[in-house]
Specification:
The complex is a heterodimer of chains A (183) and B (223). In chain A, 20% of the residues lie in helices and 25% in strands. Chain A is of the alpha/beta class. In chain A, the strands form two sheets. A five-stranded mixed β-sheet of chain A has the order 1-2-5-4-3. Chain A is globular. The relative contact order of chain A is 0.14. Chain B has 223 residues and is mostly helical. The chains are: A alpha/beta (183), B mainly alpha (223).
Chain lengths: 183, 223
């Protein structure tokens, strides 16, 4: 649908694009982390691109994830980074869409912030940081958005147990105070 | 902000200003200090729970730090532990005045991932009709509540009455008045009830008449 965006990206930013793919009618461009801001600025300002609508920003945690249909005997690239930060963009003028993906390793969970280019990503990146612990470099006000400051861990990571509770107020029906236990 | 030195200046800090007759000539200016005020998480002027830390300069708000999250329902985390069909009741509650649309959205997302592109025409029509009904109930709520905020409480009641007729119709369709869970991956839970066509025609006309009539109940300034 928006294949021409991917083609233009590969043409103008060949060094920054790792891979492009189309799945389920969506166009995805994997961008190198250190060149994300440069690519995003171009996407916003280039007259043929004009991505003026930042749709959402989120993250995918690929912990223990295997692609469907790959038999266990076949080698799966274990060294793939754990997190994928996704930026969905849309142009209201040209009516095309693209999804930027950035691979973020667990040990160095950082990603450049696009809040300076599209201010609407400000809160979205704060939510991504809150839930997945991705630190967005250059974000104007990176702090937890939904959870309280005392919260330990990042709840939407796949290794955060669903049953875990971290009440701020002492609860007699819980065995121990999990916050104290962690520290 | 400067720390208050005595009771008088503390009062001044809390109240923002003294009464005009109490101001001496050299105090004619209002205190220049900024004040921090907590608004919420639960406040009479708010419909949900959100905390806003306001920095005010007298009556003027110079900064507002909005802190949402008090109503976060962990939809994503709960869904990680549910099957695809089990997620439908959660989507009902994402926006509980238009649950059908959320149902359909979720079903379409799953179908897209499954590569299920061709659905029977009847399914598409049923989904579109119930989504449109949900959209109208949502608009009735939104516009009616906005009218209420402007002081037109009567209009709000007419709108909710009209909404209730559509809810009853959706109840006939799905079995539940508010959280329908009607859509399934690849289809809907069951066929439309008997006489649905006639009911829908009748009640959508009634909705239209009622909302038009309720316009007379709006205050002249908001008309």
């Amino acid at each position: 649908m928006s294949q021409k965006v991917l083609d233009a990206l590969k043409q103008h930013h060949a060094s920054a694009i790792e891979l492009t793919e189309s799945a389920h009618g969506d166009e995805i461009a994997w961008v190198k982390r250190d060149q994300l801001v440069q690519v995003a600025t171009w996407l916003k300002n280039d007259p043929a691109m004009l991505f003026d609508a930042p749709v959402f920003c989120t993250c995918i945690d690929r912990l223990d994830w295997r692609p469907v249909g790959v038999p266990p005997s076949q080698a799966w690239n274990e060294s793939k980074p754990r997190f994928e930060v996704c930026y969905q963009l849309r142009s209201q003028k040209h009516r095309h869409r693209v999804r930027l993906k950035v691979a973020v390793p667990e040990q160095d969970a950082r990603c450049p912030s696009l809040a300076g280019i599209w201010p609407a990503f400000d809160w979205q990146e704060r939510e991504t940081f809150d839930m997945y612990g991705i630190r967005f470099d250059g974000h104007p006000d990176l702090r937890r958005i939904y959870l309280y400051e005392e919260f330990v861990g990042y709840p939407l990571r796949k290794d955060y147990p669903k049953e875990k509770r971290q009440p701020l107020v002492r609860r007699d029906d819980l065995p121990i105070n999990p916050i104290k236990a962690e520290k | 902000m400067a720390a208050p030195r005595d009771v008088t200046s503390l009062k001044q800090l809390v109240l923002g200003r003294k009464d005009v007759q109490d101001l001496s000539d050299n105090e004619a200016e209002l205190p220049p200090d900024l004040m921090t005020v907590n608004m919420g998480p639960s406040h009479p002027a708010m419909h949900g729970t959100v905390r806003i830390v306001l920095t005010v300069d007298g009556e003027r708000i110079v900064k507002g730090d909005v802190q949402p999250g008090y109503l976060h329902r962990c939809f994503e985390k709960e869904s990680e532990y549910a099957t695809y069909t089990q997620v439908f009741p959660y989507t009902d509650r994402l926006n509980y005045v238009s649950p059908m649309i959320n149902n359909v959205g979720w079903a379409m997302a799953v179908e897209k991932l499954m590569g299920l592109t061709q659905l029977p025409k009847r399914i598409e029509y049923i989904r579109t009709i119930v989504s449109e009904m949900s959209r109208i109930t949502d608009h009735l709520t939104c516009v009616g509540a906005s009218a209420m905020e402007l002081g037109a409480f009567t209009a709000f009641l007419y709108f909710l009455k009209a909404r209730e007729w559509l809810y009853e119709l959706l109840e006939k369709v799905s079995g539940a008045r508010l959280t329908h869970s009607y859509v399934r991956v690849g289809g809907v839970a069951k066929d439309l009830p008997e006489n649905f066509n006639a009911d829908l025609t009748y009640w959508s006309r009634a909705c239209s008449t009622t909302t038009r009539f309720s316009a007379t109940a709006w205050p002249a300034s908001a008309r």
